[in-house]
Amino acid sequence: MKVTHAQVLSWRLRRQSLAPRTTASAVTLVARLAGVQAQVASAAELAVAVRQKSPRADAVRQALGDRSLIRTWAMRGTLHLLPAEDMASYLALLGAARTWEKPSWQRAFGVSPQQMAALGEAVDDILDGRVLTRQELTAEVVARAGLEGLGEQLASGWSAVLKPLAWTGRLCQGPPRGQNVTFISPRSWVPGWHGIPAPEEAAPAVISAYLAAHGPATPAAFDAWLLRGATRKAVLRSWFEALGDRLTEVEVDGVGGAFLRTEDAEALARTKPSQEVRLLPGFDQYVLAPGTADSRLVAPGRRTAVSRSGGWISPVVVHQGRVAGVWEFTEETVAVTLFAEHGEVPRAGLEAEAAYLARCTGRERGLVVRRG
User: Fold this and answer.
1) 366-371 and 333-338 beta bridge pairing
2) What is the pTM of this model?
3) What does the alpha-carbon distance between residue 59 and residue 19 come to, in Å, rounded to a whole number?
4) Residues 6+ apart with CB under 8 A from 68
5) Most CB atoms within 10 A, among 40, 93, 324, 355?
6) Is 183 left (phi over 0), alpha (psi -120 to 50) or beta?
7) What mean pLDDT do residues 96-105 have?
8) Tens digits of per-residue pLDDT, 257-315?
9) How many CB atoms lie within 10 A of CB 17?
10) Contact of 279 with 262, CB cutoff 8 Å
11) Computed over its alpha carbons, how large is the radius of gyration of the chain?
12) d(CA 355, CA 349)
């Protein structure tokens, strides 16, 4: 099957409920996007809202409250929203890499595999039927024999030693306590929790969900999204091969090796290039899933404007499926900086998007456009 990248980008906009927008719920959208990054809560809320015909500012908060969405460390070790019913499958693939058992991880964070195993057992016991803040959890862990020296690692804002506990089903985030994050066992928090499945059982569902929104994609692109390429190549290959004829190989602008769900092939072939303009929030899946290194989405010379220091992913202007600029909220404006080399972006489209952001946030701001 042969398609153009312009078709691919247009198809992704449709599959991700960006063009057209949808009446779907927050939970449905998070599932459709294969998770929503939630390092910044307001960005996660906006990622859902900009896809809804009738956006509700509290949709994500309500879904977290009724536990249909769960916030936990997931893809690439970052906090994500995941549907409660799908969460275990994503965690299974993340845990399969056993990154915490690698010498480089042990050198970086100073915790041995034996200590991680003991920590997991301790957290299992400590969080049984309880909800604790990070400070409370840390205090109880370091009171355990053999774990006294982990206080600094547990208190770290990077949360490196907590991520494997999330991936192995030991903890997730619970209801906030004031300004404090809390942790709780999925056994007592996630509806219908049955534990973490075997990776080979989980892989078809996760790969299919990713490709349904972000395909066609190579196995390497999937793994970069999942865990920055940490999955063993033989394992990754076996996951894709297990899907058999449920996947179709696609040649994009003459380059092969990408895959799409077979059920989506006809729709992609019929797709026409997009002329839509969209203003997407920071950390949006449209950018994160293929990655900012994809030069067909983000021009190489503009990558640092999109992927900034400290892991910050800028809000972006999307036109014709490509990143055509960046934007930000100021006190009074939606300030857009267009990339000069992209070409003309319709002013009417930008104005309509600024008005849509006002609907999403409940605050009117004027549009300011410049070229950079």
Assistant:
1) parallel
2) 0.97
3) 20
4) 27, 83, 84, 191
5) 93
6) beta
7) 96
8) 999 999 999 999 999 999 999 999 999 999 999 999 999 999 999 999 999 998 999 99
9) 21
10) no
11) 21
12) 10
Amino acid present at 256: G
Which residue is it, tokens 């950018």? 287
Copy the structure tokens of residue 288.
């994160």
